[in-house]
Amino acid sequence: MSDPSGSPDPYDAPPERVDLKGRTRVQRIVRRIEVALILSVLLAAAVIGGIGYWGWTHYQSPGPLAEERIVVVPSGAGLRMIARTLADEGVIARPEVFMAAAKLTGLHDTLKAGEYGFEPGVSPQQVLAKLTVGETVDRFVTIPEGLTSRQIVDLLAQTDALTGEVAEIPAEGTLLPETYHYERGVSRGEMIRRMQAAMEEAVDALWESRAPDLPFETKREAVILASIIEKETGVGAERAKVGGVFVNRLARGMRLQSDPTVIYALTEGAGPLDRALTRADWKVEHPYNTYQNAGLPPGPIANPGRQSLQAALNPAETDALYFVADGTGGHAFARTLEEHNRNVARWRRIRDGRE
Question: How far is CA 12 from CA 4, 7, 23, 246, in A?
């Protein structure tokens, strides 16, 4: 219906036309925002995903190290310092990737200090695993049988990566010759304590299974005899028989007449004698000279190994009372002095090149 005045009735105009036009404009703007947001999210995801993929690939790929290298991770170092140390040493190329991987895996608080060996091309993933389990460099020092305590201390002084000094020379016969594992930074005093504990444990164990009726009563005497056996022969198969000869002589009240005890009397354990023994040496007055004194000397003349300890506590059953070098690295054994003298004469011919 029209207004009689001729003015259009606003109620006759379709209101939807104005509202729809406004709504359409708003909806278009909303859609543009939504599309923009979606595109932004997708772009960000793509960027993040790309960075993540790059980082993951770098994490698993071979690193820049061209040759084997030893790296020390200091005690108390945090993740950032560890990553920087590895980068400075050329083990990893990007410390930030290493740190991110350590944090994302939750391993950043488990990295262990120590000395590590890295092979060429080691990946950041392998580096992280090595530091997590503490796969440090294996170091070993071998203490040969028959060294004096002073010689062992000198050997430790020359051993790489140990620290400190030995306060005093340990008592002779208290250090067990073996191969010992150690890590960089362990003190030389600690190595001495380990050797002492190992010797005590070895002697205690072997003492329990010793042969009956031995001509000595204490563990210390067993170590003294073992040290003489150790210095008399380097042939493992002979040690029990050499032990049997000395046990026979002790049981009969015979002097041991062992050349190594004379050498110890002359050097007092400082090291080997730089010349051959003479008859005059056998007559030197010294408590360790078993040519002049009956029974065992007052202390060990070296640090014996397990085999010599076993030979002293479980010697071979033999009727031999003498032995002398036979020219092959071993010894010729004899029951009588007459037989022994023949063996000595033969050894002198071999020594002088006459046989």
Answer: 14, 11, 21, 136
pLDDT digits (tens, 9 = 90+) for 150-179: 999 999 999 999 999 999 999 999 999 999
Cα dihedral sign, 316-317-322-326: negative
CA 76, CA 84: separation in Å to the nearest integer? 14
pLDDT tens digits, 59-77: 788 999 999 999 999 889 9
Whether the Cβ atoms of residue 221 and residue 136 lie closer than 8 Å to each other? no
| Pairwise CA distance, residues 283 & 290, whole Å | 10
In whole angstroms, give the CA distance from residue 227 to residue 166. Answer: 23
pTM of the model: 0.77
pLDDT, one tens digit per residue, over 8-41 is 444 444 444 444 455 565 455 445 434 444 444 4
Tokens of 325: 């070098």
Distances in Å between the Cα of 156 and the Cα atoms of 26, 159, 340 are 86, 5, 41
The residue type of 95 is P
Helix, strand, coil % in the chain, rounded to nearest 5 = 50, 10, 45
The letter for the amino acid at 93 is A
CB 73 within 8 A of CB 113: yes
| Residue 18, burial from CB neighbour count under 10 angstroms (0-12, 13-18, 19+) | exposed
Q: How many CB atoms lie within 10 A of CB 187?
A: 15
Pairing of strands 322-325, 331-334: antiparallel
